[in-house]
């Protein structure tokens, strides 16, 4: 898969007009250096992204430094990593922003001449960085929302929304949540704000009730705690949206402990563990994204720009470069394009 993604990254760029540590595994090239700053170093998504960036840097003969926040939402750790990249004289920065608190440091880096690319999480506003390589997170949410609405087949929906944060606004959080609701046929009101939609009403197939919006911090323990709170509020929940697969795993732990009927659980990420969970029925459908592609495209773009080549351009109609998404489920829904878990396993990231 990595070879296939490498070939795709080369082809794509050809047509386009906090704990930190130095990483010497990238190989001998020292003239062009890049920093990758992820949200954390524990989520398999970001671990995969780090591995992909190392591999791409090695192939390009570049020096890479890997840095990360201590946890999802750690803005201060990312700010320090940006300051370090400026001090080193790196050619560019690849970053999955932990929140708007990193925006001034990104501006400082760009003012110092570094080319800054966001990966996975477009900042707000989008022009905070030079460009973003990311999943269309709204589309990812919309896919699982459409699948859920069709699968319910007109049954009333009692929905738990297990989001990322409740104390800060991050684009990946509201885009996935609001995309899911839109896919369900629910008016999301302000698409940049979670929780302002009507708590009851009609979705595309019947009536709905939103039982809760709870933060998970994108973590398994956060998902478990969030789901426990939701079940306390409404034990009749039959649809669970989760920001990512670790949160979905935690939610399932709470659901099993409660001993009630199993709801529909949908998520976003498409890691190899997540695809197995879909295959095993713990998650019913997930939207798969491609962090290896993001990392490889980002590293190659920094090399290309630093070597005097053209800068990448955003995808048509979007304010970022779309790295693709696919719905993974073994229970396809009419009118909703999807792939099965066998194909999802071929394309998944993380440990096979």
Overview of the molecule:
This protein is α/β, with parallel strands linked by helices and 352 residues long. It has two domains: 2-135 and 290-313, Response regulator (Rossmann fold); 137-288 and 326-346, Rossmann fold (3-Layer(aba) Sandwich). It is built from eleven helices and 14 strands. A seven-stranded mixed β-sheet has the order 1-3-2-4-5-6-13, sandwiched between helices. Strand 10 (239-242), helix 8 (245-258) and strand 11 (264-269) form a beta-alpha-beta unit. Helix 1 (2-15) packs across helix 10, helix 2 (44-60) runs parallel beside helix 10 and helix 9 runs antiparallel to helix 11 (341-347). The longest helix is centred in the first third of the chain and has 17 residues, at 44-60. The chain is elongated, with a radius of gyration of 20 Å. It starts with a helix and ends in a 5-residue tail after the last helix.
Corresponding CATH superfamily of the largest domain:
Response regulator
What is the ordering of alpha helices and beta strands?
HEEHEHEHEEHEHEEHEHEHEHEEH
Gyration radius from CA atoms, angstroms: 20 Å
Measured between the Cα atoms of the first and last residue, the distance is 11 Å
| Average pLDDT metric | 91
Low-confidence stretches: 1-29
Q: Widest sheet: strand order?
A: 1-3-2-4-5-6-13
**CATH fold type of the largest domain:** Rossmann fold
CATH class of the largest domain: Alpha Beta
Q: What is the helical fraction, as a range of percent?
A: 40-55%
Corresponding CATH architecture of the largest domain:
3-Layer(aba) Sandwich
Q: What is the total number of structural domains?
A: 2
> What's the helix count?
11
Instruction: Give the class from helix and strand content and strand pairing.
Output: alpha/beta
């Amino acid at each position: 898969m990595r070879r296939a993604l490498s070939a795709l990254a080369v082809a794509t760029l050809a047509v386009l007009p906090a704990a930190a540590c130095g990483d010497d595994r990238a190989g001998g090239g020292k003239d062009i250096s890049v920093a990758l700053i992820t949200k954390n170093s524990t989520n398999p998504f970001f671990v995969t992204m780090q591995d992909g960036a190392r591999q791409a840097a090695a192939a390009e003969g570049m020096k890479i430094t890997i840095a990360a926040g201590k946890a999802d939402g750690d803005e201060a750790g990312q700010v320090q990593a940006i300051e370090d990249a400026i001090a080193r004289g790196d050619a560019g920065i690849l970053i999955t922003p932990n929140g708007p608190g990193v925006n001034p440091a990104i501006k400082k880096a760009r003012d110092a001449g570094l080319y800054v690319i966001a990966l996975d999480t477009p900042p707000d506003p989008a022009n905070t960085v030079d460009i973003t390589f990311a999943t269309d997170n709204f589309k990812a949410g919309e896919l699982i929302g459409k699948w859920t609405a069709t699968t319910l087949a007109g049954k009333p929906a009692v929905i738990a929304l297990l989001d990322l944060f409740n104390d800060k606004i991050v684009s990946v959080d509201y885009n996935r949540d609001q995309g899911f609701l839109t896919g369900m046929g629910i008016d999301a009101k302000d698409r940049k704000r979670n929780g302002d939609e009507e708590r009851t009403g009609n979705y595309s197939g019947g009536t709905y009730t939103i039982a809760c919006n709870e933060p998970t911090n994108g973590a398994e323990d956060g998902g478990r705690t969030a789901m426990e709170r939701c079940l306390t509020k409404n034990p009749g929940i039959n649809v669970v949206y989760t920001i990512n697969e670790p949160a979905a795993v935690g939610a399932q732990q709470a659901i099993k402990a409660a001993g009630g009927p199993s709801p529909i659980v949908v998520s976003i990420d498409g890691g190899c563990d997540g695809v197995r969970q879909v295959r095993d029925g713990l998650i019913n459908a997930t939207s798969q994204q491609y962090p290896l592609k993001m990392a490889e495209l980002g590293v190659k773009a920094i090399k290309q720009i630093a070597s005097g080549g053209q800068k990448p351009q955003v995808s048509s109609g979007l304010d970022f470069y779309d790295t693709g998404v696919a719905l993974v489920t073994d229970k396809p829904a009419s009118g909703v394009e999807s792939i099965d878990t066998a194909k999802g396993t071929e394309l998944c990231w993380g440990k096979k």
